[in-house]
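Repro case for the chain-ordering regression, as requested:
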Amino acid sequence: MGYRHTKDDILAGALAAALDDGLSQLTFGRLAKRLGVSDRVVVYYFPSKDDLIGEVLLGLGTQLQIALAPAFATPAANHVEMLRAAWPVLARSEHDPVFALFFEAGGLAAAGREPYRSLVPQLVTAWVEWAAGLIVGTPARRRDEAAAAIATIDGLLLFRQLAGSKAADQAARRILAGGASARG
Amino acid sequence: MGYRHTKDDILAGALAAALDDGLSQLTFGRLAKRLGVSDRVVVYYFPSKDDLIGEVLLGLGTQLQIALAPAFATPAANHVEMLRAAWPVLARSEHDPVFALFFEAGGLAAAGREPYRSLVPQLVTAWVEWAAGLIVGTPARRRDEAAAAIATIDGLLLFRQLAGSKAADQAARRILAGGASARG
DNA sequence: CCCGGTTTGTAGTGGTCACTGCGAAACCAT
DNA sequence: ATGGTTTCGCAGTGACCACTACAAACCGGG
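-- result from build under test --
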């Protein structure tokens, strides 16, 4: 019948715990209590904390793509249209723990803490290439618009996480209002 | 002749320590050792860790403006010109501990940890308004371009901190190359 | 030169952390 | 059922954290 806990059980619990309480609250002890087991069990499957974090970040990458896919699903001809398509995702991003967790991991990477410093750049690079792949419908000469849109979307995500919806809404409104009639 | 240490001494040391080693390494004990005193002295001036962090973040805000001022000093008529003016600052941002410290604080705020959750949004909002104030030379109807540029610059800063220069350079090159001849 | 408050050192407090030694229980093959 | 392996609980270990009790050193004003 197998044992009570598999590695996947614990990993899923770890990702859920991180989404609920943040990476800083993800400890062997707390995770074990959440799963109703001794922390020895967690350590058995993930011999070091870095092992656990590494796999949690992998899961976070998947969640990020799921969360952002709708933003790039609609084909868009230019910068402003891409932003408009992404808007529904951006607008609720501040309530999405996936983005909060991503920025927490990013902050730890910026602080130079391992294993984040090694792993987060791979995560971000993979995301950028994935996003670029989703917009292949864009003509080649519009690739610059796509690059600008991706950077802008990223900046607005940052505003929303760090400054709240007010600043982000203001910036987005100006971009959408100003660019609507101009270039097409 | 007064005492050996003033509050400003210790605060300056704390900001320097944070820039050197990150906020996560800023502890009473380590700061005291750096200053060559007992940790009791630090605690005397900053009764709680949050007091210390609050003032360090205030200092960080000033440093951020100093670091970013050259990016907005040149008047620019549109999105692409603004990005081009900001480029020298962006290009070296990954080696600037001020930006690393800012993203670390941002990550802690995204994780919901106090006092960052309360203080960082004020920091970012203040920065956005300050940046908007610097670009008053831009005609009113170009304000949307400015908003897009600020978000784009922010996104590129993020790329550089979290994904390294390669991804950021690629995105920026596309934006600058594609937009150079277009709108003016 | 002594008296008040201000500043600093010594030596802790209780808490949490990642991680471990060891033995027992659960499991599987035979 | 039995022997060996995998899984797990109990009870730690030492390190580090923010923060504190207490008393000594220091200072300017009288």
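Ordering looks correct now. Chain B has two domains: 1-47, 54-177.
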